[in-house]
Each structure stands twice: as structure tokens, then as C-alpha cells.
Amino acid sequence: MKSYKKAIEENVPTMLVFEHAGMHDAVAVHYLVKELKEKFGDKAHIIPVDASYNGQYKVDYKLKEYPTYIVYKQGEELMRESGDKTIASLSDMIVRSL
To answer: What's the pTM value of the predicted model, to 2 decimals?
Structure first.
């Protein structure tokens, strides 16, 4: 698996999905990530990041709630959403950054 720090620098949209072990909807987020990976294949990177292992993520990425979805391309943050999202809204975030 590609390092997320390298992936966000590429000219391919990269969605970081920040999760936390205590999330009430962890299973749903897992399935959303799986669906997004299947839908976009090589057109986008979808990378789950378990923030419960490293508290510095909360500071570095200014996370206020989980899950948080951040799309990067060429090292630039393009958009960010937090909370419960549908596959359609997350897909839209990626499509807009292609």
C-alpha cells in the first residue's frame, strides 16, 4: 500500500478517510471506503487512516470529528467534509477533483 503522504502529492485525487476506533459508524465507513475504491479504481486513491493510533493526526489535520474526509491533489487540500456521508456525496467530492 502506498504511503498516504506520497499519495497526496500525486496528480491523482487522494481521499484520506480519518476514522477513530470509538466511532459509532465504523462499519459503515469501512463499506464506504471499499465501495469508493471499487468505483474509482486507479482514478483516485482512497486511504483510510485510523487516527486512534496517533493523536497528532487530530492536530496536523485539524480534525474536529470523525469520520473526516479530506481530498488532496498535488499536495493541496481541495475539500473536506465530516460526519455521516453517503456514497453519492463522497463520490461527488472525488469527481469534482478529477
So the answer is: 0.93
83 φψ region: left (φ > 0), alpha (ψ -120 to 50), beta (else):
left
Segment 49-95, tens digit of pLDDT: 999 888 899 999 999 999 999 999 999 999 999 999 999 999 999 99
Domain definitions of the chain by residue range: 4-81
Strands across the sheet containing 45-50: 45-50, 14-19, 68-73, 76-82
Please count the CA atoms within 13 angstroms of the CA of 71 that sit on its side-chain side.
Answer: 19
Fold of the CATH domain 4-81: Glutaredoxin (3.40.30)
Which string of DSSP letters, residue by residue, matches 53-76?
G-THHHHHTT--SSSEEEEEETTE
